[in-house]
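Key idea: predict the complex, not the pieces.
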Amino acid sequence: MFKNKLFLLLPIFAASVFFISCKEEDTPDPNLTTPTLYSRVGGTTLVADPIAPGTMIEAGRLTLRSVVDSSIFVIAADPTMAAFFPVLLGEVGVGDLSGLGMLSDNLTDFLCSATGSTNPDYAYIGLNMIDAHDPSTNGRMGMAATDADFDAFIADIAIGLSQNGVTDADLINDLVELLETTRADIVQM
Amino acid sequence: MKRKIIKWSIIVTSVAAILFLALGVHLYYVTDNFYQEQRAQPQLQLGRIDFQQPVDSATAKIIQAKVKSIPGVQKTYFNIPDKILVYSFYNTAQNAENIFASFNQTNNIPATRYVVAEADKTKGCPAMSDEAQSGLILIYKKMFSIF
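Result:
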């Protein structure tokens, strides 16, 4: 009697194994198969920081900082964008902080956080995108951004990417897609 | 019993106040040092020259080479369609006025140095604003970026 019951359970067990194994194939572990954008641009591997001899930096941050620094040049030379970043071209004397250094740090922090960096030193701790780009809640925002302004910003970042040898179309598309997720919050006109 | 409670309350409150004060002094010392160190370092900054007539890519390369050869200039970028040149330099080694004057000695194309209006210096990308960060978070960030 007991053996008969076991015999009946056997097909159920086999079916369970089949479905479980199928389920694992259908829903792969995202951590194993989908690397973050941050890891795709270099990740957490420590490398020597070319602008700070003797210090190390995560390769992902180094890539993003290089892109930001190149893009800042493009933005500063873009008449559409210059209206939003006048402080970039404002001169400071010895003993004061320049807009270039501050913008580089903060935009790099923002991109590190947005692409999936988990390093607390690289965390973006600024205002949320809506409040940050609303002239009524942020005095530094002289005027609201339009879709055309945002398009110009994306185009400038794309030039920054190409200047740093980021030519992988998938990677560029994913980075641009990431920036596009902020459009609705940034464009307020 | 009541006196004992009061005595311990005073002790606990005093210890908490001393610890809070010590934390405040520590935060002030650390963050103040951080900013002083930052300000003492040479600051990379940007300058811009606007050209009044079209510039082709060959001429743009020559102009970039000229500007780059000026002592203190680090990098250049030319936006050819908009006739705008941007260059970087360390404020301990150069200033934009000198760079423009040096460049103009050999330049034949009408150009002007872009100067930001005083009122506009307070504007900029909101991500740059320290006001955009809550004071305590900013202090902690700076504190932990040192250690």
